[in-house]
Amino acid sequence: NLLLGCELTASTKSYTFQVDEEDDSDHILALSVVCLTDGAKDECNVVEVVGRNHENQEIAVPVANLKLSCQPLLSLDNFKLQPPVTFRLAAGSGPVHLAGWHRIMHREDASLEDDVSEEDEEDLPPIKPAKK
């Protein structure tokens, strides 16, 4: 896993994360935190994720609306995206910092995971319901 970080501001309103299409790996980009950083004004800062749908049309989806006085930080719990993906500051002047990680899964690794025997899986503790 590689750490990823970028900052969106009034002068740099977008950041595109691309991978080499030629390599024979699957790439996953996981967004963990979006937060306002030093120098942000108390205004709405809307961050969009811009990608492409199955018909190769551009779609933009807002993932965060941050405001210094009420929500300066949003945890996205490793929101998974498929590169290429663009992050865009649709409203506000930032600075907004995005942090996450980039995971590269080599295709030959995927076949090794299928060989895991069922005995190994039985060692895992049972999942307990969350305490409310």
Automatic annotation (TrEMBL):
GO terms of biological process kind: chromatin remodeling
UniProt-annotated location(s): Nucleus, Nucleolus
Keywords: Acetylation, Chaperone, Methylation, Nucleus, Phosphoprotein
Gene Ontology molecular function: any one: histone binding
Entry keyword annotation includes Phosphoprotein: yes
A GO CC term assigned to this protein in UniProt: nucleoplasm
UniProt-listed InterPro entries: Nucleoplasmin, Nucleoplasmin_core_dom, Nucleoplasmin_core_dom_sf
Skewed-composition ranges (Acidic residues): 111-124
Broad class of where this protein is predominantly found: nucleus
Chain positions covered by the region annotation Disordered: 110-132
Family, as annotated: Belongs to the nucleoplasmin family.
Assembly and binders: Interacts with NPM (via N-terminus). Forms a pentamer with NPM at a ratio 4:1 (NPM3/NPM). Two pentamers form a decamer.
Reported function: Plays a role in the regulation of diverse cellular processes such as ribosome biogenesis, chromatin remodeling or protein chaperoning. Modulates the histone chaperone function and the RNA-binding activity of nucleolar phosphoprotein B23/NPM. Efficiently mediates chromatin remodeling when included in a pentamer containing NPM3 and NPM.
Family annotation (PANTHER family): NUCLEOPLASMIN (PTHR22747), NUCLEOPLASMIN-3 (PTHR22747:SF13)
The protein, known as: Nucleoplasmin-3
Lineage, broadest ranks: Eukaryota, Metazoa, Chordata, Craniata, Vertebrata
Gene that produces this protein: Npm3
